[in-house]
Amino acid sequence: STGLAGRIAGLSDAAGGNATLLRLARAGLEVRDAIRAADLGEALLARGDLSNGHQLLGDACSIQREQLKAVQEWHQALAADPANVSALISLADFNSDRSNYAEAERYLSQALSVHPDDPGILFARGRALYLLKRYPESEKDLVRSLAREGDEAAPLALYYLGLIQQQKGNLEGAAEFLR
After folding, report:
1. Residue 9: its pLDDT value, please?
2. Kind plus residue range of the DSSP H or E element containing 133
3. pLDDT tens readout for residues 34-52
4. Which of 22, 36, 56, 172 lies 20 to 30 A from 78 at CA?
5. Among 23, 32, 100, 97, which residue's Cα sits nearest to residue 61?
6. What pTM was computed for the model?
7. b/e map 119-140, b = 16+ CB within 10 Å
8. Residue 157 · residue 145 · CB < 8 Å
9. Which of 16-36 are b and which e, b meaning 16 or more Cβ less than 10 Å from the residue's Cβ?
């Protein structure tokens, strides 16, 4: 432990202090600083925030390529809070990276039950469904993702929608999406 959490001045013992630690840890993960993120995750565990603490430790382990430990931590996060969307997305990403799209889709569906309109989760599940050859369901999620993000922000959704149109035999529609 680097003791970072103990050196943060003015950190309250209440939920606000936990939120600050969580924001700092996520910033550390964004720059792939697994050591500081893990340290802050451990601090959250010590403060009783089991779900976020384990989720952060899982992401830190993943950065350090300790995949089995990462999966264990994410499952502990879900045991503490089955609605921890960050842990669900981490498990979905882990499974997608291993071409286990059925399991990824299961985690993404759980995440969408918590955040039903999240365009990133909609796209990820739409992609997983596409790779499972469940085209009608995929198309629905990808269209919903586009409706929330817009064409410019979600070019990969357009790509998958074009491929779905091609599967349907709608070559004009496919060409429109893929141009």
Report:
1. 46
2. none
3. 998 999 899 889 888 999 9
4. 36
5. 32
6. 0.85
7. bebbbbbbbbbbbeebbeebbe
8. yes
9. ebbebbbebbbebbeeebbeb
